[in-house]
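If your schedule permits, I should be very grateful for your opinion on a structural question. What I wish to show you is a protein chain and, alongside it, a tokenised description of its three-dimensional fold. Would you kindly read the sequence against the tokens and tell me how you understand this chain to fold? Here, with my thanks, is the record as I have it:

===
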Amino acid sequence: MSQIHSVTGGSTSSAVRKLVFSAMGIALAMVTSYIKVWEMPMGGSVTLLSMLFICLIGYWFGPKYGILTGAAYGILQFVIDPYFLSVPQLLFDYPFAFGALGLSGLFHDRKYGLQIGYAVGVMGRFVFSTLSGVMFFAAYAPEGMNPWVYSSLYQGSYLGTEGIITLVLLSMPPVVKALDTVKRQTMG
């Protein structure tokens, strides 16, 4: 346990609490990733709030925990449903893209921090997914269409849709109150 303390810079019970909540976030994200509202033909889907659970870890515990949790979730996504062309593609599509959801932690102490952080996390995932689309999947762009435009439209169609749905949900007072209650519980 002292190793946990030295890595996290906090108390052992605090580190264990963060680890448990992070594992729960990964589990909830994984389960909800299978509840697909809409699925894209070449990968990607609008799910039942799966990105939110990773963003919550970043928002509650800061970007370090959020990014690590997102990267771990990305690796789990790869293990369960792998699509592999090269090591750089694997990194961009899985640990980098999902790890970017943890950027939500940069706004943990701001008014509307969860909403802003969620939007930034989804934008980070969009950036890595778009870069992957341009670098590794440009051949799928329709003839004569710029790969940047194609990849941006493709990624934005499902990430933007889920992002907007989640932001609407996060603006509802009962949801805000419930998440504030859980946040207080995460702090011990």
Summary: The CA atoms of residues 72 and 126 lie 18 Å apart. The first strand starts at residue 36 and ends at 39. DSSP finds eight helices and two strands in the chain.
